Amino acid sequence: MKQDRNAEVVIANANIVLPDRILPNGVLVLQDGRIIDIRCEPATTQFIDFGGDFIIPGLIDLHVHGCGGYDTMDTGAGSLQKMASALLKQGTTAFLATTMTAPEPQLQSVLAAGKTFYRVNSQAELLGFHMEGPCISPNFRGAQKKADLSEIPVALTSEVKILTLAPEMAAASQYIKMAQEVGILLSAGHSGATYEQMQAAIDAGVHYVTHAFNAMPGIHHRRPGLLSAALLDSRVTIELIADGVHIHPAVLNLALRLKGPENVVLVSDGTRAVGMPDGEYDLGGQTVRLHQGKMTLPDGTIAGSAAPLLAGVRFMAKVAGRPLYEVVRMATLNPARLMKLEDRLGSLENGKEATFLRVSPGLLLN
How far apart are CA 199 and CA 193, in angstroms? Predict the structure, then answer.
């Protein structure tokens, strides 16, 4: 929820999830849309009783294609607005609308739609766009259409906040230069880059990895590649999809042991099938099938996710066994810092926006 501007509001009897711990039986005081006090003592004035539920910061998803039947690539009137409304119902309060590889005119049309986006209280905040491709490897394209891959650089605008590319592709150096001129975070993904190629890319400013372990070679003991370089370099932050489909819990824990929770961002890679029933859906001009929580192309290739970011938080805490405050940080403060928004979003602290979720002990929205 995001508190509207009004008089002081006191919430008590809540487990408040802070960046480094959980404050039991906490009191959260809000005024004019901001947090003005967090304490652990009985409320002395009239208060809203949260009955022992958890309060966590609003979730920030830096890699989400769609939700509730809507997709970033839809160019119909109000599609981004509807996607933002659907995301908020799933617990995501801010997001980067993520594109699929497509011809430049279509990409520019999608980015232009972001300029007309007008947020209301019933919608998640659009932070910009994550452009996934088109400079990616045809051998590791995942669910991206091969026909739309291109070595011809696409014009980048300030609406793009993250750019995913394959460092080994011929056009990568041009993209890196353009992205740095606009201030875009560079990410390696959908790539078969060697260890040396990834090291060179990191030195050139590629400090993020898109859905680590997916759409890239695994770790080989004689031929280390992109993943090995990223896991070993402290300059690099990696995305993890914790939907129970993309990565085994043991590998999630391995990545966290190597990177530390401060260098990991949980993302959903959600598609328009999030919150929708089993069936067939469109993803970047391709038909994908949702069956029992798994999205696939006809050939069986995993094609995005049908789980919202909150489900990833729940999976990391309940199945992978990570401390809740650590998991929440990876879905809130870490992405806020990458987007340079930590002064107002990403954690429950005095002076920050009162944007938070009330969740049950089972980490379900209340």
Answer: 10
Q: Is there a contact between 241 and 214 (Cβ–Cβ < 8 Å)? A: yes
Q: Which amino acid, one-letter code, is at 279? A: G
Give backbone dihedrals phi and psi of 341, rounded to 5 degrees, phi first.
-120, 15
Q: Which token pair is 45?
A: 């004035």
For 291-316, the pLDDT digits (tens) are 999 999 999 999 999 999 999 999 99
Give the residue from 216, 211, 273 showing the smallest Cα distance to 242. Answer: 211
Q: How many CB atoms lie within 10 A of CB 240?
A: 25
CB 29 within 8 A of CB 43: no
| Residues in a beta bridge with 220 | none
Distance, in Å, from the CA atom of 87 to the CA atom of 228, rounded to the nearest integer, reads 33
Positions marked active-site: 269
Peptide bond into 134 cis (omega under 30): yes
Work out the pLDDT band at 1, boundaries 50, 70, 90: low
Look at phi and psi of residue 303 and say left if phi exceeds 0, alpha if psi is from -120 to 50, else beta: beta
- Cα separation, 128 vs 117, in Å, equals 10
Distances (CA, A) of 288 to 67, 100, 298, 302, 336: 14, 14, 7, 9, 31
The Cα 138–Cα 144 span in angstroms is 9
Q: Using one digit for the tens of pLDDT, what is the confidence trace for 131-146? A: 999 999 999 999 999 9
Give the pTM.
Answer: 0.96
